[in-house]
Amino acid sequence: MSSAVSAxxxxxxxxxxxxxxxxxxxxxxxRGDLNSAKMKKAVLDVTGVKLPKQxxxxxxxxxxxxxxxxxxxxxxxxxxxVSETLASLEKALKGNHFLAVIVSDARAVFCxxxxxxxxxxxxxxxxxxxxxxxxxGQIRRTRMAQIAAAFWxxxxxxxxxxxxxxxxxYAFDLLKDAAEPRGEVGAFL
Length: 189
Hints:
The chain is an alpha+beta fold. It folds into two domains: 12-23 and 106-178, Probable tRNA modification gtpase trme, domain 1 (Gyrase A, domain 2, 2-Layer Sandwich); 26-105, Alpha-Beta Plaits (2-Layer Sandwich). Helices cover 22% and strands 34% of the residues. A six-stranded antiparallel beta sheet has the order 1-2-8-11-10-9, with helices on one face. The chain has a five-stranded antiparallel beta sheet with strand order 4-5-6-3-7, covered by helices on one side. A hairpin with a 2-residue loop joins strand 10 (147-155) and strand 11. Helix 1 runs antiparallel to helix 2. The longest helix is centred in the middle third of the chain and has 12 residues, at 82-93.
């Protein structure tokens, strides 16, 4: 059996912010009734995180849960723990209407870090990136140029972006181009 590899092998670019592919991350799309007590308990048990509110992402160590839609979560765990996490969710939710699917190998994750990360995303996405509007702990699903993407701030100087693996090179090239030093930056400082 072959070993899993990330989409771009840890590609990295240093511009006025750092752009780097994050490598493998375990991800499960979990759909169902987010208001049910069973769903809340199952997610808490496997991640240590309660269910996030609308447009929120919650972290506990190397695990996270992101709100993706009124009936959908993205559960993130270490890559080597994803199968065990899925089995635990399926066992906990047995008898309920739900869908849980491993999507780890269908996704690519990028990290932007530096003082001007907001500006990079603002160049590519139709999202208000002002600090009074978008803050750490929030997530947005949107378009990044011509592709679907989701992003969240892990801190004021760091943003993570997830997109389909099939467009990882395009996403990296977009981010790299947006991070290319060309003059004045600092619109959100």
